[in-house]
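Example for tutorial group B:
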C-alpha cells in the first residue's frame, strides 16, 4: 500500500472547490509516454496551473501501470525542478471499469479514480460506485462517477449513440453513491470524429463541418439540482483544424475530423464544470509534428528529432488550453 500523499500528489477535493468558486476548470490530460508527460508538466509548471494526469485502461496496457505510476511520481520532482514550488498534480484513473481496478489504483498511489459504471442499469451504477467510494474514501482518494452515456470511441470505451444525463436523477445518484464529482453527458463525445457530417452543418466559406451545440440546458438543470457540485466533461477535445490540416498535408488521412468548439468549453469552464478531459488534441498535435518532420526529412531516423518537435507542439497546445480555454493558469502558485 502506497499513499499518494507520500508521492507529493493531491486529490481533487480542494482543486474542484476552488475551481467552482473561481469560475475556471482543471485540465485533465491523458498520458501514455514520456514526451506527453513532459509536455503536460512543462505547460502546467510554466503557467502554474493545477493539473490532473489521467491514466486510461488503454494507457495501462500500452505503457505498463507500474511504469506510469513511477512516471507520475517523477513528474512531481520534475515540476519542482522547473521552478514550480508547490505543484498541484493529481494522478487519476480514467474510466475504471471494476472495483478491483479502482482498488488496485488506490493501493498503488493514485489520488483519484473514476468508476465508470454508466453502461450498467441505474441501481447497479449506484451500487458499484458506492463500493468504490467506500473503499477510496478510507484513504482520502476522490472518486468520479458517470451518469448518462457519451458517444464516440476512446480506447476500450465506445458507444454509438449518446444519452444525455437525466437531471432528475443526479441528486439521488450523488447522495446515494457518495461520489465526489460527476461526469455528465451533454453532447461531448470521445475521439477525433465527435460528430458525423449528418449531425453537422457546413460553413459555406471554409467547407468545414460545424458541430451541433452542447446541451447547456441539461447542464443548467443539473447545476440547479446539485448547486456547487463538481461536474466533469469527458470527450472535450476541440480537434484543432490546423493539426488536422498538417496531418493531411503530410500524408495522413483524417477527413472531416471534428471536435467541440473552444468557445463552448470556455463557457462550460466558467460554470460548475471543474474538470475538462482532453486527449485527442494532444494525439493530433503529436502526430502532426512527427509527420511533418518525417515528410520534410526522409533521412531522419533519430526518434528525438521527431519526438522533440512533437513534445514542443504538445506543450504549446497544453498552454493554450490552460490559458485560453480553461482559465486555470496562476491557480497553483
Ligand atoms: Zn472519457
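The residue assignment follows.
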Amino acid at each position: 500500500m502506497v499513499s499518494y500523499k507520500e508521492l507529493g500528489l493531491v486529490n481533487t477535493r480542494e482543486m474542484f472547490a476552488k475551481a467552482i468558486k473561481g469560475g475556471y476548470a482543471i485540465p485533465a490530460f491523458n498520458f501514455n509516454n514520456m514526451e506527453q508527460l513532459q509536455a503536460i508538466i512543462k505547460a502546467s509548471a510554466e503557467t502554474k496551473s493545477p493539473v490532473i494526469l489521467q491514466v486510461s485502461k488503454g494507457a495501462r496496457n500500452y505503457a505498463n501501470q507500474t511504469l506510469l505510476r513511477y512516471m507520475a511520481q517523477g513528474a512531481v520532482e520534475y515540476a519542482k525542478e522547473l521552478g514550480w514550488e508547490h505543484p498541484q498534480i493529481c494522478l487519476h484513473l480514467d474510466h475504471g471499469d471494476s472495483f478491483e481496478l479502482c482498488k488496485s489504483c488506490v493501493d498503488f498511489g493514485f489520488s483519484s479514480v473514476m468508476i465508470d459504471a454508466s453502461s450498467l442499469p441505474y441501481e447497479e451504477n449506484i451500487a458499484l460506485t458506492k463500493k468504490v467510494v467506500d473503499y477510496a474514501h478510507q484513504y482520502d482518494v476522490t472518486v468520479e462517477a458517470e451518469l448518462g452515456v457519451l458517444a464516440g470511441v476512446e480506447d476500450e470505451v465506445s458507444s454509438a449513440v449518446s444519452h444525455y444525463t437525466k437531471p432528475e436523477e443526479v441528486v439521488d445518484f450523488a447522495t446515494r453513491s457518495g461520489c465526489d464529482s460527476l461526469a455528465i453527458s451533454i453532447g461531448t463525445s470521445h475521439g477525433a470524429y465527435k460528430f458525423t457530417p449528418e449531425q453537422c452543418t457546413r460553413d459555406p466559406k471554409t467547407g468545414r463541418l460545424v458541430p451541433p451545440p452542447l446541451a447547456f440546458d441539461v447542464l443548467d438543470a443539473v447545476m440547479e439540482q446539485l448547486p456547487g457540485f463538481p461536474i466533469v466533461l469527458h470527450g472535450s477535445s476541440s480537434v484543432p483544424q490546423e493539426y488536422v490540416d498538417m496531418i493531411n498535408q503530410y500524408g495522413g488521412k483524417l477527413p472531416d475530423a471534428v471536435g467541440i468548439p473552444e468557445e463552448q468549453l470556455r463557457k462550460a469552464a466558467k460554470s460548475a464544470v471543474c474538470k475538462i478531459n482532453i486527449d485527442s488534441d494532444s494525439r493530433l498535435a503529436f502526430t502532426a509534428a512527427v509527420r511533418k518532420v518525417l515528410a520534410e526529412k526522409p533521412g531522419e531516423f533519430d526518434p528525438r528529432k521527431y519526438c522533440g518537435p512533437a513534445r514542443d507542439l504538445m506543450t504549446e497546445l497544453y498552454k493554450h488550453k490552460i490559458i485560453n480555454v480553461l482559465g486555470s493558469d496562476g491557480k497553483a502558485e
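Residues 95, 154, 190, 234-235, 277 surround zinc ion (CB under 6 Å). Compare this with the pattern of hydrophobic and polar residues in the output above.
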